[in-house]
Specification:
The chain is 60% helix and 4% strand. The chain is mostly helical. The strands form two sheets. The protein has a three-stranded antiparallel beta sheet with strand order 1-3-2. The protein has a two-stranded antiparallel sheet with strand order 4-5.
Length: 416
């Protein structure tokens, strides 16, 4: 909103209007405002939740300190959603397709999570929204994101053109090239199903390769594969964040670390100089996503003020499904979705621990007549709780692992 307002005022030489042209300035504003919303307005929302007696129902699983959490306000994900959406609506360009996709993704999964929490808290159904309806919602979002990226003409990558090709001049705004350089750099915009793949010298993978046997239909087949991959990633990462939200501050801190990493990747992908230096795809207009992820980081850190041990509020599915979905969609937009197994290694381990536990239990029950377990309890963080490790230590160690994975994710851009 402010971008468009001050862009209009700049023609009248309004003092300071030009500052809103800079992504760095608007990103700083977004992170500051999101922190303020999460900490100041968040406190009032927590009080409201307490007055409404919107507390967490706790099952006794024999975990240390578990029953003390009973009655802690839940649905605190509302705080995160507000702290993300308000700064984005104020400081981001609302004519940017990537920003619009991120807003839709945030609201979409926020509503699914809110409905799940509402059924648990107000309808007193412990299971909440049925799993199949959650999956339908996640698949629906993945379909919307994948199809939008396919049909929208603004979704392109920009690459250097050969002399016979008709190209476009590189823009000098937020792309790092001087006016002199832009005059000689001939570029072309192309629709592409390419994505970044780690540890390979030519670190690009093209989904269109799946369509090679189909001849002239290779490109459409590539996009179909891309849409299917998008659906799988959105569903898996949002569920992974949901499973990780089992200890105070665990999902919040892990998401903040992943968000900071994605912010770096978005910035270099949206800057022609850095993209060229790192030999990665340059994605026009993706730099605007730095504003969104700045609000995301501010919201998660601000929420951590109240969600750290001992938690004064839980995010509930309203927050956890949204956090995972945001990370997934963001990574897909900047063509870094194949880095998610590294970046979101915590979410992956939590997901796998549940799948392995359930699968092995069912297998041994069929074979031996008695179910056996791999872990003392799943998801994985509860396994360490069962081993007697204090909750804050588990969370801190998971954060450390998350930071190490984040660094590795960035380093993959040069390790090939």
């Amino acid at each position: 909103m402010f971008y468009h307002l001050f862009d209009y005022l700049e023609q009248f030489d309004f003092p300071g209007a030009g500052m809103f042209q800079y992504i760095t300035f608007r990103s700083a504003c977004a992170i500051i405002l999101s922190l303020l919303i999460a900490t100041i307005i968040g406190k009032r929302i927590i009080r409201f939740l307490q007055k409404q007696q919107i507390g967490e129902e706790i099952r006794n699983l024999g975990l240390e300190g578990q029953m003390q959490k009973k009655g802690t306000p839940t649905m605190g994900g509302i705080i995160i959603l507000l702290a993300i959406l308000v700064p984005v609506l104020l400081f981001a360009r609302l004519d940017n397709v990537y920003i619009l996709l991120m807003i839709v993704s945030t609201i979409w999964l926020g509503l699914i999570g809110f409905l799940d929490d509402y059924i648990k808290v107000f309808r007193k159904h412990k299971e909440g929204l049925k799993g199949k309806f959650k999956v339908i919602g996640q698949v629906g979002l993945g379909l919307i994101v994948g199809v939008t990226l396919y049909v929208n003409d603004d979704v392109v990558i920009r690459e250097q053109a050969t002399l016979p090709e008709v190209g476009v001049m590189a823009s000098t705004v937020d792309e790092g090239f001087s006016e002199e350089e832009s005059k000689v750099m001939l570029m072309k915009d192309v629709k592409s199903t390419r994505t970044t793949i780690p540890f390979f010298k030519n670190n690009e993978f093209d989904y269109a390769w799946f369509g090679i046997p189909f001849g002239k239909y290779a490109e459409p087949v590539g996009w179909i594969v891309f849409i299917i991959i998008t659906i799988i990633i959105v569903t898996a990462v949002s569920n992974g964040a949901n499973l990780t939200d089992g200890l105070d501050g665990l999902a919040t801190g892990t998401s903040a670390i992943a968000g900071a990493t994605l912010g770096i990747l978005a910035y270099v992908s949206g800057n022609l100089v850095y993209a060229d230096y790192l030999n990665i795809m340059y994605i026009p207009h993706s730099g605007e996503l730095v504003i969104f992820i700045s609000a995301f980081i501010g919201a998660t850190i601000g929420f951590l003020w109240y969600n750290s041990f001992p938690a004064q509020v839980f995010m509930g599915d309203t927050g956890s499904l949204s956090l995972g979905g945001i990370i997934a969609v963001f990574a897909i937009i900047i063509h870094k979705e194949l880095l998610i197994p590294i970046l979101c290694g915590i979410f992956l381990m939590e997901n796998l621990s549940v799948v392995m536990q359930v699968s092995y239990f069912k297998y041994t029950k069929r074979k031996y007549g008695e179910g056996r377990r791999i872990f003392l309890m799943s998801p994985l963080h509860h396994h360490f709780q069962k081993k007697g490790i204090p909750e804050p230590k588990i969370v801190t160690r998971f954060w450390i692992v998350g930071i190490a994975l984040a660094v590795l994710t960035i380093v993959t851009l040069k390790i090939r």
